[in-house]
Amino acid sequence: MTAPSDDTARLRELVLLRRVRDRIDRDYAQPLDVPALARGVNLSEGHLSRRFRAAYGESPYSYLMTRRVERAMALLRRGDLTVTEICFAVGYGSVGTFTTRFTELVGHSPTAYRARASRTAPEMPGCLSKHATRPVRNREARDGASGLTSAL
Question: Which of 103, 66, 114, 69 is nearest to 89 (CA)?
Fold first, then answer.
């Protein structure tokens, strides 16, 4: 059995990790990096990265990139902004980096995704759309780690 002080320390750490995750969810379009996130909760970069991965299954950086790509997917489906505008709106500083990361996570370039989404995406509530179209890294798709695949 774990001592009460160990449980308290673990809960405090989980609160800090949740604070980091909430900050990423809220400020994904801002310039964020692991050192800044670690400073915000008074942890070392390495400790934050290890504990975040243990709690959420991916590093803080990967989580941030996933959030940015998810938001970009929603903006691309909406269709009223250019790919360049979306790139900067979700926090990327370079269209090339955005396109590379988007293609890596989604399997299509942003332009191809928009064209395909406009042809095939039925109207559905945002919460379902976000869940159904969540980016899956290529290695996860090959490993079959995700039970969902995008309908797009």
Answer: 69
pLDDT single digits (tens) 12-52: 999 999 999 999 999 999 999 999 999 999 999 999 999 99
pLDDT for res 144: 47
Residue type, 57: G
Chain segment 62-72, per-residue pLDDT in tens: 999 999 999 99
Tokens of 39: 């400073």
d(CA 122, CA 29): 27
Q: What DSSP letter does each residue of 49-113 carry, written as one string? A: HHHHHHHHSS-HHHHHHHHHHHHHHHHHHH--S-HHHHHHHTT-S-HHHHHHHHHHHHSS-HHHH
Contacts 24+ apart (CB under 8 A), 97-104: 98/72, 101/65, 101/68, 101/69, 102/69, 102/72, 104/137, 104/138
Residue 29: partners with Cβ closer than 8 Å, 6 or more residues away: 68, 71, 89, 90, 91
Rounded CA-CA distance 90/147 in Å is 27
Q: What's at 7, amino acid-wise?
A: D
